[in-house]
From TrEMBL:
This is Zinc finger protein CONSTANS-LIKE 2. The gene is COL2b. It comes from the Eukaryota. Belongs to the CONSTANS family. GO terms for molecular function: DNA-binding transcription factor activity; zinc ion binding. Residues 15-62, 58-105 form the B box-type domain. GO terms for cellular component: nucleus.
Amino acid sequence: MLKEDQSNGTAANNNCARVCDTCRAAACTVFCRADSAYLCSGCDATIHAVNCVASHHERVRVCEACERAPAAFLCKADSASLCTACDADIHSANPLARRHQRVPILPISGSLYGPQAIEHGRMKLGRSATAEMEDGFMNQEGDETIDEEDEDEAASWLLLNPVKNNNNNNTKNNGLFFGVDVDEYLDLVEYNSCADQNNQFTDHHQQEQQQEQHYGVAHKNYGGDSVVPVHQYGEVAKAHQMQQLQKQSFHQLGLEYESSKAAYSYNGSLSHSVSVSSMDVGVVPNSTMSDISISHPRTPTGTVDLFSGSSIQMPTQLSPMDREARVLRYREKKKTRKFEKTIRYASRKAYAETRPRIKGRFAKRTEMEVEVDQMFSTTLMAENGYGIVPSF
DNA sequence: TGTTGTGATTTGCCCACATCTACGT
DNA sequence: CAACGTAGATGTGGGCAAATCACAA
């Protein structure tokens, strides 16, 4: 959505995009704080590769929306670097945009492009060179070979749970920096709050195992009733594999969150992004372990004060393996996502369907109905030899 | 262009009770 | 250790109210 907005906006604003202070030809892509100069990729590479001091100049990307101010935040959902003003404008536009995750952009020092790119930049002076340099710049933030959209979605999706009822707040709050909505990031805070991230994962893992055992028992005892799909060996193995990936990811996330606390300071709330929408919330989780682990138990509201003022941030720098693992996990889950409600106990369903209702709500059975029911079940038992409610 | 009103759609809650789980005896 | 009893938790579906969305004036 924002991409469309931005592409439109960028296209519209291209005419007034700031030009490079050095070459006065190309559009600037970075802002050098030390030089207080807006530079295009080529000039940036050339100038900051001159010597060691220059290479340590802190630079930030230019806002992709207005292209006139240094970017302050990176919108993960849109993969867009935005200045404070554009960020406020864009992400206060609608509730969906408010849920985008944004992280402060760290200034970058050192060579952004690597020797090859610099050499390239020196040799080529045309648009193509600039384009290549920009690509290089993009790649600097991480391995972009993986589908970025998927990855961003995966990242936000894996990290955060949406809050189903933020209605009360979002009429006044505009998301990340425009209000305080504590509950919305409790899930995240939990990661920060956990002193031992390994334990954190262990808890999840144990929970998963309990769930697995629970389902296993259910299948054993009530296999006739249950309609929960039983995993084949291959699927179990896959689930186990996914667990391993998740374990890696949780470790990674934990570290990232902890470090982020020191790195940044947010005063506002962090809205949830994407993915586990209210549709998902209403869905009974299927038995893939990767699904179960996504739902974090909510932290009691009282604990929030402990973290007020502390920051929460998306991990911005992951090793290629971790990123790949995360995306893989996301894609895997995306494939196995189920939006249909899963009936775990058909017998309960059967009873629910036969139960008397008043305006949709279950009502107490009258004595007559109880008698009829008893007669029916007696008959059923006599005919079938048992009283099990037929499964569906 | 921004505001207001209206209709359509979506979401979450409520209810009773059989079933399930985790205990203790 | 197995069998039994008990208390508390869980899950089930239809209707409704509230929230949200889309569109027009």
